[in-house]
Amino acid sequence: MLELTRITAGYDRRAPVVRDVSLSVAHGEAVGLLGPSGCGKSTLAKVAALLHRPDAGTMTLDGTVVRGWRHRAPQEQRTAVGVVFQQPRLSADPRLSLRELIAQPLRSTGRRREVPARVAELAPLVGLSEELLERRPHAVSDGQLQRACLARALVLRPGLLICDEMTAMLDASTTAALVAVVEAYRAESGAALLAVGHDRVLLERWCDRTVRWGAERNLLVR
Predict the structure, then answer these.
(1) Is the distance from CB of 173 to CB of 91 less than 8 angstroms?
(2) How far from chain centre, in Å, is Cα 8?
(3) Residue of 206, 137, 133, 123 lying closest to 165 (CA atoms)
(4) pTM of the model
């Protein structure tokens, strides 16, 4: 499903935060990427989500080599990956209601007719009421907003879901609820998962295997 080979990436070519890193996620597999804050794991996740172009290395998604990132990636590759970030308030447009937030990917890919049915399907699954769907981000809690961000990541039915510290800012009950939503989606769709975090216990319970960010930014598979 996902193959990252000898990836080097960062925001300064003279000092990349990711150096020569390889990682794979098979179809239907759940892989945890474990490492401390600042080690580069979120940068690698952005490469995998087609949001950051690496300086070197290759990425293969569902058997096809990726040639472009962000708006230069083909739509079929962009829509094959859903991503949820750590801080929902930085990834949500404050002008949009939660309903509009969830519907964003459908509208941007010309699938407006699917909006009512898909939002109505996802909202109860992630724990959002009709009343909450009409609120904007400033009027909901972090947990409620992250529920909407997860629904947005699932709305196009991606084959790969990337959760980058998705639960780091959430309480235990909300964490358990969102992990359950992800696992229900994976069981129904056969989607793969890359879960990024620093909580070893959570990742080892959640994922089929955990990849640890080791010395000199090499990944050690357990």
Answers:
(1) no
(2) 20
(3) 206
(4) 0.93
